Amino acid sequence: MKKILLVVAIMVAVLALLALPKGQAGPGKGKSIKWKAAFIDDGTANLTGVAGFVGGVDHVNINNGLGTCEGVPYSFLELQVFTPSLIFKNMGGFLDWGNPDPADSVPFPYGFPYTTGSWPYCVANFLNDNVHPTAEYPHIILRFSTCGCDSTTDLMKMEVGKIIRVHMSLLFFSHIWGCPPNSQTFLNLNMNAHGYYKGGTPDIYIYRSSLTEWIASVDTMFDNSDYQNITFDSTSANWPVTTSDNILGQYATCDPGPVRKGKTTWTTTYHYPWAKAPLKFQIKFWQY
């Protein structure tokens, strides 16, 4: 029961970000699509999985569906993982970062468990030193969507052999930030990128290899120039994911406001430290 309540709490926090629609029905009335997924490790990837994933089995969800993004229809395909099964290898090589903790203290006070480095090196330590998800980040969501990308609005209707540019979000969620201040200090983390053409192929895309199989490919530096000009401090808890191509942390600070009816009010400011580093992997989704 505790695990169920925890998952419910997490989903409440991320629904605004993900806008999860209902799953899509498969061929025939009332017949649900069954999904499997597996990472493809060619020796150059820095994100892999310890085994294949079966939707609805062993604490794994694999979903596809339709939604709207600022009024524009989009399609998504996602993997949700609740047990340790994702491995980062040599995640690092940060070339750019900014908006760190305003106190500029060491160790970084809004970091990750069991890490002491400052931003962004705490990101590398957290990712490389653990199999994910961890106890502090019990739910990981890897989502690919057409929102803000090419005109195709339904991944299920792609032509076999076609490649389309997509948006990727890889979310590590720990807890809801809020005021008054409390003892929870772990950063939430969202690795967020929009497909970027650096040549003939975008750095994030989905390829439909057969009627029942889709392959998502990621080889990004989070440097899409169309998604860089944003404000990284806000009074809103909504992640700036639709306008950002970055590895984003999230934490909040609290400032006391006017006393009303004998109670202190608080002003909450959400901060989004950002970084860029190479991320490369492929994952195959297929129906069975």
Describe, in plain words, how this protein is organized in 3D.
The chain has about 290 residues and is mostly beta strands. About 10% of the residues lie in helices and about 40% in strands. The protein is built from 2 helices and 19 strands. The protein has helices at about 1-20, 120-130, and strands spanning about 35-40, 45-50, 55, 60-70, 70-80, 85-90, 95-100, 130, 140-145, 165, 165-175, 190-195, 205-210, 215-220, 235, 245-260, 265-270, 275, 280-285. Residues about 1-30 have low confidence and may be disordered.
What's the helix and strand layout?
Blueprint lengths: L1 H17 L16 E6 L6 E3 L3 E2 L5 E10 L2 E10 L4 E3 L7 E3 L22 H8 L2 E2 L6 E7 L17 E3 L1 E7 L14 E7 L9 E7 L2 E8 L12 E2 L11 E15 L2 E9 L2 E3 L2 E9 L1
Antiparallel strand pairs: 1-3, 1-19, 2-6, 4-5, 5-9, 6-8, 7-18, 9-11, 10-13, 11-12, 12-16, 13-14, 14-19, 15-17, 16-17, 16-18
Jot down its keywords.
mainly beta, disordered N terminus, 288 residues, 19 strands, 9% helix, 2 helices, globular
| Total of DSSP H or I helical runs spanning 4+ residues | 2
Q: Distance between the terminal alpha carbons, to the nearest Å?
A: 31 Å
> How many independent structural domains?
1
Order of helices and strands: HEEEEEEEHEEEEEEEEEEEE
Classify the oligomer. single chain
Roughly how much helix do the residues carry, as a percent range? under 10%
Which stretches are low in confidence, meaning pLDDT under 50 for 5 or more residues running?
A: 1-29
Q: What value does the average pLDDT take? A: 84
- How would you describe the shape? globular
Which range does the strand content fall in? 35-45%
> How many individual β-strands?
19
- Main sheet specs: 10 strands, antiparallel
Helix/strand-derived category reads mainly beta
Q: Whole-number radius of gyration? A: 19 Å
